[in-house]
Amino acid sequence: MTSIALCASIGTAPASAATPPARSAAAVTDGPSFRLVDIPMKDGVVLKADVLAPAAGTPGADSRGRYPVIVQPASWGQNDLEYVAQARKLAADGYVVVTYTVRGFWLSGGRVDVGGPTDVADISSVIDWTLAHTEADPQRVGMLGLSLGAGMSLLGAAFDPRIKAVAALSAWGDLVDSLYSGQTRHLQAAALLNALQAPTGRPGAEYARTLADLYANRDMKEVVNWARMRSPLTYMDRINAHGTAVLLANAWSDSIFNSSQITDFYQKLTGPKRLIMRPGDHATQELTGFLGMDNETWANAHDWFDQQLKGSGGTSGDHGAPVELHVRNGGGEEDYPSWQAVSAGTRSLPLGRADAFGTGALDGPADTGWRTSITGGIDSGADAGVTELSGALDQIAALPPIVEVPLLPRFAAAVWQSAPYPSVQRIRGAVTLHTTVTSSASEGTVFAYVYDVNTLGVGKLISHAPQSWSGHTPGQAFPLDVALFTTAYDVPAGHRLALVLDTKDPAYGGSTPLGSDVSFSSPQADPSRLVLPLR
């Protein structure tokens, strides 16, 4: 149980977790040079790394023959050979690239620190070594990483002002919200990630203890403090003071680092910045890039460094909009000058009383005074899906988790549904729910799901989120607000919206006691409502 919890904080895509090739000292004969190196840290630990350098005469050097440099920490459970295919492209374009195995993994020494103080110190030591042992320009230092490497790159920007630009792919900005959004533990992701790190990682004692507590739901205050120390968001003032240029590229259905934590992080950046959001799950958008294939996400990162470190237009010649959204359900690409411009406004949808079939009206006339009860601790079948798989299916086939809304058991789920919409409903941002809850227990968890429902009653998941509570007097009503994860989704004309609330989801560690009574109501003084951000 301890090891299952260990990896909840540092995701990488299963797709990138194939065993890397064995380390070989064979040099590249054409194009950029390649060599394996050992980089000593201040505490004596040695990190395994590789260096790719431009061939002689490659454009991009300054008057002293120095090139911009990209430092790449490997992702969770991976080694320094992970990024070689993309590093070759960067080196061929005039970058010195140093990729290293993070301490605690593979042949690097030390223990896993998950972006803690030791990992952050290692970043600066790797930069020191790079400037001393390669033709790297100290005025043009960038960092590029995926997942763990992305979170570490953002932390590096906070603690080392030499880092001028970062491209963070499938990143965490707020590790607390990634592990514990809505005060609810993300357990399915923890189990999957543990399976990926177990063969290659050596967890440190603090890491093992803290993540074991997360999985066991004990000492959560200490877990939160541990995660906050490793959150780039905690050091946002430093990143902004350094003026670091930051590119963030994440997926809407990332089941490791949810979309809301990264869009919130983006909004707080004040320096040069760009946000790209696409359909998919954790690191699924980046997958083909590991094989050296053309990949839009990696190309965006390459362009970002061309712009920020070379002052050029990038390989595509396009600087790109500050916010680039790829809309789910076939909605295409949309560009915006800011996150605030993504939605044109909001519409409040009242929640109404249940009919004879147990379904309440959504987006109908205002209706208060009703009460709907369900039995707690039962999975209704409305779920967030399977970690990594569900988001990947949404990316590949526009097939997120689905349910037959008419068949959901009303004893375990409260359901509201709108009439068919005559035109497309363009949801952009975070859907929010406000309702009143009364429970027979002092603690519990509600899971909110919003679905796109077709004429056959099949609902595709648009977004969801958990929200837990504790310390409430049993039988006493209290208000509950749930902010669902940000998304961009087009509901087709003729389809309905459905809101489903239940109290158990296999992806999370909820706290609603089995058999407890949980009811939702809409007092006249505080009506229940679902608020949509719309274009």
Automatic annotation (TrEMBL):
GO molecular function, one term: carboxylic ester hydrolase activity
Stretch forming the signal peptide: 1-17
Highest taxon in the source lineage: Bacteria
UniProt source species: Streptomyces roseochromogenus subsp. oscitans DS 12.976
Xaa-Pro dipeptidyl-peptidase C-terminal domain ranges (all copies): 302-530
Region annotation Disordered: where it falls in the sequence: 513-535
Keyword Cell membrane listed: no
Keywords, comma-separated and alphabetical: Hydrolase, Signal
Identification of the protein by name: Xaa-Pro dipeptidyl-peptidase C-terminal domain-containing protein
Database matches in InterPro entries: AB_hydrolase_fold, CocE/Ser_esterase, FrsA_esterase, Galactose-bd-like_sf, Xaa-Pro-like_dom, Xaa-Pro_dipept_C
Pfam families named in the record: Peptidase_S15 (PF02129), PepX_C (PF08530)
